[in-house]
């Protein structure tokens, strides 16, 4: 059993699965040029790694190392995608209407460069303010923190829109957010 073959098996599968995970996420977000390019690299690495294992099936450690590379590759791929934080999120914050904080929050969010649509609804305990907030995904945790600082009782739910068109979210808003961050 060669340690160099085991290391190569691990790193080849690690690279394959990391790229595969990122490629899948890019595909889901509609990156039509980058995802196919990554898929070419991905399949080349996959065939190389699989041939290493298939030629050495007599030793179960080879299969274990291959599987370990797969598991670690998925974890690292998800970590990288989280750091890249591509795309946008749509956050709905539902606030109790019996506090002064709910009236301040839309203004605070707009001053920070977020696109905010404000409406009202009826909940179990009465009237609620509903805020629909569009944000780059990389600012998601900052947005949650800001909402919770102003109104700790806020109910927050987030989803990722696939397509955005029109409305307040324009280059002007992105430029304003960039200015505020620097």
Automatic annotation (TrEMBL):
Gene Ontology CC annotations of this record: plasma membrane
Subcellular location as annotated: Cell membrane
Mode of membrane association: Multi-pass membrane protein
Record-annotated DUF2179 domain positions: 114-166
Keyword Zinc among UniProt keywords: no
Pfam families per record: DUF2179, DUF5698
Source taxon at top rank: Bacteria
CDD domains: YitT_C_like_1
Spans through the membrane: 6-26, 33-54, 60-80
Family of the protein in this entry: Belongs to the UPF0316 family.
UniProt xrefs under HAMAP family: UPF0316 (MF_01515)
Protein name: UPF0316 protein HMPREF9088_1914
Naturally occurring in which organism (per UniProt): Enterococcus italicus (strain DSM 15952 / CCUG 50447 / LMG 22039 / TP 1.5)
